[in-house]
Amino acid sequence: MSNQLSHLLTQWHAKKDQGEWVLGTIYDHQGPCYRKAGAMMLFNSFGQQFGMLSGGCLESDIAKNARKVMQSGQSLLLCYDGSDEDDLSFQLGIGCGGTLYIMLQLINADNHYLELTRVFDALKARQTGIYHQKIPDNGEPDQASFELAAFADKNSQAKLVSRKQKNEISQWLATPVVAEPHILVAGGGFDARPVVEIAYQLGWRVSLWDPRPANARKEYFLKARNIISGGEQALSSFVQANQLDAAVVMTHNINLDAKAMTALLPSSISYLALLGPTHRKLQVLEQAKLAPEQLPFPLAGPAGLDIGAELPESIALAILSECHASLKQKTAKSISGVLAPAPVGNHLRRLA
Predict the structure, then answer these.
(1) Which of these three, 177, 201, 228, is where a domain ends?
(2) Less CB within 10 Å around the terminal CB: N or C of the chain?
(3) What is the arithmetic mean of pLDDT over 85-90?
(4) Which residues does the UniProt record annotate as the domain XdhC- CoxI (predicted)?
(5) Backbone angles phi, psi at 79, to 5 degrees
(6) DSSP structure class, residue 4
(7) Is residue 280 domain-resident?
(8) What are the tens digits of pLDDT across the range 111-134?
(9) Which residue(s) pair with 43 in the sheet?
(10) Domain hosting residue 17, numbered range
(11) 310 in the same domain as 216
């Protein structure tokens, strides 16, 4: 089950009037935490949970408190302090040392479903916006709102903001709402299967194009949202009608790769991976009658991070890791530094 907000709301929306539902939201955090402010989770009276607010260590206690909200009808604020020896998170031996602030709010028709129906509709239409939640105080009615908004940076983080209402200052959480990434895979051969599978596991929307009858067979790509089997014009029409974030071109055919790249020119993608070595990339560009500087998107060719990939699964991992880093505007470097090259002297000592 994906933890993307669109996936969580899809589970909720069809059953929003069945039983009781509670929305759990991290509204602030301090220090190292698995999830950050803006992370959401859903609980219902049937015992189901969708999403995560920690690495799985706090969810049972959060669920217990969510049941209290269902019974009382009142919102609840929780604090898990990993640095406090008397706190549950410390006693569980989690060891992160961070502090999470979580609000639990009932979702029902009386509070307009906390405006989550509007958030759901926006995500379904792949629109962006800002979801506002008032941090509840003294049992007051829950307040939430949603507004459509364009972002210069889709990786904007949730933040607490102050609002003045009736001469009182209240705290609100403003969370950017952005649809899950939509990736196009051009090429439906054997090695495209793990690309589609891993992208789906990440919670991304995956579309697949391959005009060859023997390729892109639906039974091998059950996780693909769309399969386009027509020619270049069909792909061009799809690109123009859909918002794409990234593409992986891997048809193993220079002519088809060139057609895919040409069809993607008017798209809004911010990453394109082209399978194959550098000299093949130049052949594809020549076939497409394009120069690298004419491309409106970064071209990753050869594609992927250098992780020693040789098999289809590891090649898919290398490409999607690079794609993920590109979409998140990260460097993809080792966080711990463990991959930094060791000084020659140290290396020789280890061999001795």
Answers:
(1) 177
(2) C
(3) 54
(4) 17-81
(5) -135, 125
(6) -
(7) yes
(8) 999 999 999 999 999 999 999 999
(9) 22, 49
(10) 5-177
(11) yes
